[in-house]
Write a structure and sequence with these properties.
Elements: H1 3-20, H2 27-35, H3 48-57, H4 63-77, H5 91-101, H6 105-114, E1 124-127, H7 144-155, H8 160-174, E2 189-193, H9 200-214, E3 218-223, H10 227-242, H11 244-248, H12 262-265, E4 284-286, H13 318-321, E5 326-331, H14 335-346, E6 357-362, H15 383-394, E7 398-404, H16 408-411, E8 426-429, E9 436-437, H17 460-464, E10 465-468, H18 477-499, E11 510-515, H19 520-535, H20 542-563, H21 573-588, E12 594-597, E13 616-621, E14 634-639, H22 646-651, E15 657-658, E16 667-671, E17 674-676, E18 679-681, H23 683-704, E19 707-708, E20 711-712, E21 723-725, E22 741-746, E23 753-754, H24 762-777, E24 780-781, E25 787-789, E26 799-801, E27 806-812, H25 813-822, H26 828-843, E28 849-855, H27 858-862, E29 869-870, E30 878-879, E31 881-882, H28 901-907, E32 911-912, E33 921-930, E34 950-956, E35 968-972
Parallel strand pairs: 2-7, 2-8, 3-5, 3-6, 4-5, 6-7, 10-16, 11-13, 11-14, 12-13, 14-16, 28-33, 31-33
Antiparallel strand pairs: 1-8, 9-15, 17-18, 19-20, 21-35, 22-35, 23-34, 24-27, 25-26, 25-32, 27-28, 29-30, 33-34
Length: 987
Amino acid sequence: MNDIDQIRIDLHTAALADMDASRPKKLLRALAYQAEELSPTVENLVSEEDFCITLKSAQSVDPIIEKWRRQLTRWDFINNPIWSKSESRTDSRRKEIYDYLGLSEDTRTLLSQLIPIATIDRPVVVSEEFEPWYLPDTTHSDGWYWTAYRKLLLDKGWSNEAVASLDEASNQVVERLANPTNVDTYQSKGLVVGYVQSGKTANFTGVISKAVDAGYRLVIVLGGTLNVLRRQTQRRLDMELVGRENILRGTNEYESDYADDPAWSQDKFLKFGERPSVLGAFDIIRMTTREKDYEALLQGIEALEVEKKDRSLPLYDPKNLHSSSVRLMVVKKNKDVLTKLVKDLRRLTTPLSEIPVLIIDDESDEASVNTSNLAKPNAERTAINVKIGELLKMLPRAQYVGYTATPFANVFIDPSDAEDIFPKDFILSLPRPIGYMGARDFHDLDSAIPARDRTIFNSNEKAHVRDIVTLDDEDDDCLQKAMDMFVLSAAVKLYREAEGGLGDGHFPHHTMLIHESRLTDDHRELLGRVSKLWWNSGYTSAGGHARLRELFDTDMSPVSVARSGAHAIPKSYDELLKYVGPAAFRIGGDLKPIIVVNGDKYLDTGDADFDKRSIWKILIGGQKLSRGFTVEGLTVTYFRRNATSVSALMQMGRWFGFREGYQDLVRLYLGREETVGKKSVDLYESFEAICLDEESFRSELARYSQMEDGRALITPAQVPPLVSQHLPSLKPTSVNKMYNAQLVEMASPGEWRELTAYPKKVTDLRVNTALWTPILESLSSLSSPIKIETSNVESDEETVALGFSALAGRIGSDQILEVFHSLRWWAPSQFLPHLAYLRGITDSGLVDDWLVLAPQHNAVKSGNGSAQVADWGTKHSYSYFSRDRRRDPLFGAISDPKHRPGPVKIAHNKVKWAEGDTSRTGVVVIYPILEQLNRPERGSVNNLDPGKVVMAFSFVPPLTARRGAEPLRFTTLDSSSRRPIIDVVPG
């Protein structure tokens, strides 16, 4: 690069910087203005011709293109700026930008070729209407702390698109908070949904920076339930938001609480040059530090007092607000800690009603949500929920924003419970970040490639997932192989540093996670097992090299060839050999290759503080490693722990995250036959189910976020987004967080379904009997026994009979759906989830008709006069069944076990019972029931009152009646319009 090139870069940089805080302006005028401050030779560069010639010879990575990419991307991404009527990230927006710049067609074409409009996903928002106050082109959006944070991210290597995406998403949160300078108070509550280990902290750091720039003066960050999570969050905010000068506040840098942190010595903490208040901005005063959670201030309560420039005006007046410092605290979700904070806030002399407060709740689905069903007698809210509620009550200008990757517990909160944290104002779903390795990267969802044709080239499972199948509790072969892969991938990382151009120290962390249990006693036993395996592995011996060579040839090398991209790959194990010894030494050279991370101080064999040192270790852990804690450099995971809810299992997925430079090396060893009670659980299947649950939730948000005439079609409080359950054994969240959830759809292709919540009122029973009677009257005796094909069932006989006598008839799907829709119930919520599914498959043409069966007792067939039959003014008598309400008003089992196999096999299309295609035929089995008060001791009943007949039924939809993956679907009950649900029936 010559001097002229550098001057040109400086000229364009200055011109773009001048436009950064406003709208695009005439480029030539901006260049001419800046040229006055530079050397005389600049005048020749102030022309569009020079710019066009530069663009023609430029590469996309040239410095001048990077400067233009940064600014164009920012203008592309801004939502609703005053200077544009176009939607962000569109051709029309880019045209407006070029028009403002006054560029020729040639220049526009060249710029668009070098810097195309970014195509990354947008945030999805479901929101109440709000009054716009935080506009992208006001002074708010270019405030002190956001500007510094944005620059820090770019300097760290974030792409322009990633920073612009963060800018866009954080704007959409801040604009939905209340304006901190408004006289009237309003408390906004929202939820931001990210992905596990995907950068949620970066988003709320951006939100905080913009909020304090706009005037929020007290920021409370609820940093998880564990000290390790709180410390991690405190450090991130101190490093990237608070900055060096605010941390020191005039003290010696060696007295800082980060003096032993390598990043502090390496100047990686944000720097302003002086205290922000000296430079015309405002300071951030920390009320907590990395090692110290919030403590009662005793006589030092003035530390919390927010100063006023004009005491005659309220704090929220702009004259006071923008000259006062911000108080920031990162507190653990602990009852004692929050109690101290509440007590101190009550002692402030500044009226709490004047302080604009932002509460950020990290991992908001854990501890924050009330898990006590307040509908029950003497029920009380859970402790943390009470404290959050107290903060919101005493701070009327407080805004609450929860952050989580597992939002199901939050959306099951009662929307009408004003004291709880239901996200009444907005739910924002963050887009999947660039470079993120998530659940989809380990599964083959929606793959059109048959399983038999999948390879490491086209299958994520084949590339990254390895099965754990053990013969017994002593079988450690899979664990040994996982540890070998850990050492082998460590050697490849060293190879890439040395011979792949990455440079020494490019991979500061390299870790393996072993997660089998949350119990510390199990960790003790596992530590012994893993230690024994490590010290007997012989990684520098002939036997060790033989194992590693085979693993390299059969697993590592093929996958890396297919998926490493531009990263260096050893051509053979021999080429890698010289890095194996150093890799093993780096892991275990200090005689401590394993770190146990749990709450047992006697088992903490090492400090898993990724901030203070480089860690190349095997980690054993449970709860501390399953929620929020970032395991840096995680490359190999050995996972065998099951959970009963999607939220818990998803949070254990520490292998999700950013794996720049080593995605091809990532391996996930998963238990495929884990014993849980009497069941065998496939953990890979479980994670696939939660991936489907997550994607279903996000798609619901996207559907609800659509606007019509500038207004939201739906708001969070009106109809909470539906939550799906794709695996019956894996609930969306823990049971105690689902007391307010209502099942709204239950798909059951090919499954026997039996209802028990039939009405008790005579009028309702008469309606139901009248609905079913015409169908019963249309049935006839089977002309021949229904046969079952033996090729599809386990049987040594040529054919198997249906197994019972029945009247039968084929009824159209629309007619049956009309009956289903008109039925009356004691508890409608029991059938409504089924009805939603049945309506869906009928409307979609997935069911043609139903084979209706009315089982008949053998005595009816033989003409025995003592037959158990009844009529209720019908042409024929029908077998009735003696059943009672075992859990009044619910019946117990209704069907006879022998009635089930045949209909299920019919619905599975394993029965030849009619000509033509019967693959879309379901089965309904009708049971006229007489309860004890209405039936004789034996024999028949004539002219029975239809109001004394309970027309019960079971059904089996066709196995083919699938609408993609078949989930259970939940929504939230609103107490303002609550109806009884079956789960709260007494008795």
